[in-house]
Amino acid sequence: MLNYYKNDIKEMIHWIKHSNGLMERYDLIQKAFDDHFAGRYYASIPLFLIIIDGAVNDFTRSKGFFAEGTDVTAWDCLVGCSDGLVKLKGIFNKGRNKTNTEEVLMPYRNGILHGRDLNYANEYVSCKCVALLFAISDWVKMKDSECQRKAKMEKEMNSPSIRDSFSKMKNNAKDRLEIEKWEPRTIIIGTTIKACGEKNDYLDYPYLLTIFDMFDAWENNNYGKLSILLKNIFSFRKSDKMRAGECRELFQSKKFESFEIQEVEERACALSRVLVKVKWTVNEKLFNELLEFGCVYQNNNDETALPWRDNGEWIITPWKVQGLYKL
How many domains does the chain have? Predict the structure, then answer.
């Protein structure tokens, strides 16, 4: 676990950025992680604690994480299950009333920030701060979407009328017959399709046309269109304008160069996997990364649909795109 939080977590830092209260502190978060990865725990630990307290204060518009009375539960939230965050808060917020020179292995907020726990700077404490920061990020996202998730569940639990049920069963039977007739195509790059071609070369593979549109929007700095095509990255934003702004922040320093299709796999009639090798530059530094996307055909209700019905569109789902966040 220590090795994960000291090294592998580096590829996941961007997840934190997408949480209200933490977005505004992203520069500080990066500085805290710089100290953490460099082993400067005397600096990373207080900064993590300050960031967590301030972010929760902004989000609740009331009190910080460590303040008495702050509610850190959320409906149907894993990190809030069995009052998990509440228990962590109780442990880390323990009163430290005497100066202590012995090494501590817990991020005691009061002892560290009030100068009573002097021997706090070690990997255990810093890694636990990192784990807490990610837990807070998850909690904020779940708390933010609590009302929408409850409404969705209530909608799903409402039983349809008998007439609607029979109609749906009829449609499902028809869908089932059509789906059973569908067969995936074996696609060999360089034989079946080109690795690098023009958009018109892929008209028989409509899900690839959406991939082309995505890279075309990136190349032309069309962040509005790009944020729509990659809405599953920026969907936490509440408006198209805000989502476009977040998209601009991620891509504006990345000058698109080229892409090559590496693998295409038709996994189901409405789902395909696409692996591409993408090149871009940041301040003349070349990046050459593999990015993996899922392409899902959905109707206007965001439900998986049958492509041959022509009642929806192909939606890009980012599966493995950590390379976009490398510096």
Answer: 2
